[in-house]
Amino acid sequence: MLLLFDIDGTLLRTQGVGVAAMAEALRELHDGREFSFEGVEIAGRLDTLIWRDVMSRHGLEASAELHDRFRCAYARHLERRLAESPGVARLMPGVPALLRALRADSRRHLGLVTGNYGETGRLKIRASGLDPDQFTINAFADDGPDRRSLPGVALRRFRETHGRDASASTTVVIGDTPHDVDCARASGCLAVAVATGDFDRGELEEHRPDLVLDDLADTAAFLRWLESARA
Ligand SMILES: [Mg+2]
Hints:
The chain is globular, with a radius of gyration of 17 Å. The chain folds into two domains: 2-13 and 90-230, HAD superfamily/HAD-like (Rossmann fold); 17-84. The protein has helices at residues 17-29, 47-57, 64-84, 95-103, 118-127, 150-162, 178-186, 201-205, 219-230, and strands at residues 2-5, 12-13, 90-91, 109-113, 137-139, 172-175, 190-194, 211-213. 45% of the residues lie in helices and 12% in strands. It has a six-stranded parallel sheet. Helix 1 crosses helix 3 (64-84) and helix 3 packs parallel to helix 5. The protein is α/β, with parallel strands linked by helices. The site of magnesium ion has 10 residues, from loops.
């Protein structure tokens, strides 16, 4: 069984440090100009698309070269900001215990399906105190044109890594936004929505995930649901 976790709002929150580092990277690359993220949808979206929207809102061309430079500068500023504020990347309730319990069964495989770039996603996870290497099957922002394409990338990587298919119907996408639920649905995966991000339980329920949780604190309940979903 493959369990694919979102990062921001699901495993952890960085209290705005991620967006601040993005804004700083943009300032650095565009002669000190101030960038606003107002009106740009962020939660549950790919960093590549957030960058493109911000560029477009400021009348700037979104070239591949500028994107590469942004990505490098963003990682550098994020790393520094996370180091300057120890503890700013806060784990959501129950996350370490749940991951430990999931890892205890070798038939379960942990991965990431996230809008973060690989390197910045790993920086956030490490800053929260988790080992990023426990997530072995991952799909990041630059692995596809949109979030919907990412679970399929993870399933392909599972096949490449393990030499056999992981069934989409028993693969679980765990995230905090309607985009996470949508990408699970579009890929034939199970969707667990957790209300530790910007969306409350009622808002998530409207998107009909297979399971809605206030948080990931009840490990036993999560494992019971997993067993019933597998059957
Ligand atoms: Mg999220």
